[in-house]
Specification:
The chain is α/β, with parallel strands linked by helices. The protein has helices spanning about 5-15, 35-40, 60-70, 85-90, 100-115, 135-145, 165-175, 190-200, 215-225, 235-255, 255-270, 275-285, 290-305, 320-325, 340-345, and strands at about 25, 50-55, 75-80, 120-125, 150-155, 180-185, 205. It is about 50% helix and about 10% strand. It binds flavin mononucleotide.
């Protein structure tokens, strides 16, 4: 996720049990490679393997060059972005805009696969719009060109991030493809992870927003899939230590000034749904130095320690209650769970 999955955050996610993490997207346009932002996105020092770098662009030759350039700088897997719906990316006919041009998709994946001797993976949406779902065709094009694995965000480009995830399409892709398929979209709990895996038959799950602010989700899912039991939430003390360690890595990576600005989005996400979040948000927005951010975090966790030994999220249980209701057919109106109704009907 651009702006989120920088190297310090990826390393944290791997410490918390993620088996794999992909870099923020890197533009294929070489004029951008000298900028501080792109240089940071290509910096993998100390990162645990496999190092996967995502590239974005619409010109096969430039994408091939970008793939080679990143492999020379440590990438062990190249991922191609055909999922981003952002205007800035789609106006350059890249990201999910490519899904409307299957011939160009074929040219890009073939050029990138030919250019490097590491695995090339592809990230897509289900199509350009609900009337133009072509994920199964794209999957065939990708595997014919030698793509090693495919991640599918179960929404179309037009759907952006709204509406139910079409796991039925992800399942259709999995059934049609010979290469591994990752299911992606709105996976935020261990129970949802189990059900998406069971329904789609996917080989892996890809998790974005659910882990932002809750990187322990990875170990919680791993534990749940292995044992069927929920791992307790982290203790307040452990969460504080993990966040402070993340901040240390983060400031070292970005420097103090930029680091303080970018850390706000992580700190907001860590504390959403915890007691004292509103006051903390105000304090973090006002904090202009690393010391002030550390002090605000310490005050926040002091307050939380009085609430109990472990983190207790305000939204705990809400999602799963509605999910279980739906499963039993008792609450068919819940818009959040329509994918499951579609799945049962399919
Ligand atoms: C802030 C943000 C940035 C994102 N950046 C990227 C990106 O650079 N490359 C990509 O393939 N997907 C990107 N995505 C999409 C996510 O990888 C993922 O497909 C989508 O959020 C659905 O999964 P989720 O519900 O688990 O978040 C981004 C999503 C968000 C919210």
């Amino acid at each position: 996720m651009a702006g989120v999955t920088d190297r310090p955050f990826r390393m944290l996610c791997k410490r918390m049990g993620a088996g794999y993490a992909v870099s923020e997207m890197v533009a294929s346009n070489p004029r951008l490679w000298g900028t501080d932002r792109t240089r940071r996105r290509m910096d993998h020092a100390g990162e645990v393997a496999p190092i996967a770098v995502q590239i974005a662009g619409a010109d096969p030759a430039l994408m091939a060059d970008a793939a080679r350039y990143n492999v020379d700088r440590g990438a062990q897997i190249i991922d191609i972005n055909m999922g981003c719906p952002a205007k800035k990316v789609c106006n350059a006919a890249a990201g999910s805009a490519l899904l409307s041009n299957e011939r160009l998709v074929a040219e890009i994946v073939a050029a990138v696969v030919r250019a490097v001797d590491v695995p090339v993976t592809l990230k897509i949406r289900t199509g350009a719009s609900p009337g133009e779902r072509n994920a199964v065709t794209i999957a065939r094009i990708a595997e014919d060109a030698g793509v090693a694995a495919l991640a599918v965000h179960g929404r179309t480009r037009a759907c952006l991030f709204a509406g139910p995830v079409e796991f039925a399409t992800v399942r259709a892709v999995k059934r049609a493809a010979r290469i591994p398929v990752f299911a992606n979209g709105d996976i935020t709990t261990p129970e949802r992870a189990r059900d998406v895996l069971a329904y789609t038959g996917a080989d892996a799950l890809m998790i974005g927003r659910g882990a932002h602010g809750r990187p322990w989700l990875f170990r919680e899912i791993t534990h749940f899939l292995a044992t069927g039991a929920r791992l307790p939430a982290p203790t307040v003390d452990e969460a504080q230590r993990a966040i402070v360690e993340h901040l240390g890595d983060h400031y070292a990576f970005y420097g103090a000034e930029l680091g303080v600005r970018i850390a706000r989005r992580h700190l907001h996400r860590y504390t959403e749904q915890l007691t004292g979040a509103a006051e903390f948000r105000t304090a973090i927005n006002a904090a202009e130095s690393t010391d002030a951010q550390y002090a605000a975090v310490a005050r926040f966790f002091e307050g939380l320690a009085g609430e109990g030994e472990r983190l207790r999220y305000g939204d705990d249980g809400a999602e799963e209650a509605s999910f279980v209701d739906n499963f039993r057919g008792a609450a068919q109106r819940s818009p959040r769970q329509t994918w499951f109704r579609e799945a049962l009907a399919a």
